[in-house]
Amino acid sequence: MAGPDRENEDFVGATPDAVVVLDGAGHPARLQTGCVHSVAWYTRMLGSSLLGMLAVNDRPLADMLAESIKTVASLHSSSCDLAHPGSPSATVLLLRRTPDSLDWLVLADSVLVLDMHTTAEPMVISDNRLESVADGLRTRLDSLPTGSSDHEQERYAFVEALLRHRNRDGGYWVASADPQAAENALTGSVPTDAVRATALLSDGASRLVDLFGLASWRRLLDILENEGPAELINQVRTAEGTDPHGARWPRSKAHDDATVAYWRL
Fold first, then answer.
1. Fewer C-beta neighbours within 10 Å, C or N terminus of the chain?
2. Contact 45, 75 (CB under 8 A)
3. Band of the pLDDT at 32, cuts 50, 70, 90?
């Protein structure tokens, strides 16, 4: 679900045995990207490629992500400057079920939550490298009212500074035009029969827990199980609405695209 006045830059899709969630990295409108395509176009192309591969392929998830990044790059390399630091990009969550294992891949700041049979608390998997870089750059941004002209000016400077750390060692990695990002994704597996359910969350949805602190991961799973993804997003929007200028919860955007995939196994 996007904000009321703009296109959703997230992507979600599934096969009977796999789920893909991408969170497109939206930027201030005046930021140069070197690309004639939108972030939403990029996430749709990358998501579609990944779904197609997951439906017919059992290769490692990182290999499939690398090939999909190459495939999408080939679609616009002749019209766009793919070396530009602002070229469209996205976080990636991949989850695949096999008879024996549940394989996962996490790249950048979306969140995977696994509801385990054997523990009361879920397993939470998140790539915090983007957050680690951003935290050192956003002190002034967080001091300004969200949506103000000063905040928008500082957000532009913040994003430009952040992009200088994108897809390089010591910085953070996202899917864009460089397939090397796939090699730097977090990957792993758990036994299929150890997991009750899973939640794949863009950071616009996970903010109820990891930004607002209004629920635990256990509570988030209970909301999804009993009331569904729409209720989780409703609670996120309600919280955002109580703090439109970021006084309680400083943030880059008052509202962010919020996407949830909940899978009962």
1. C
2. yes
3. confident
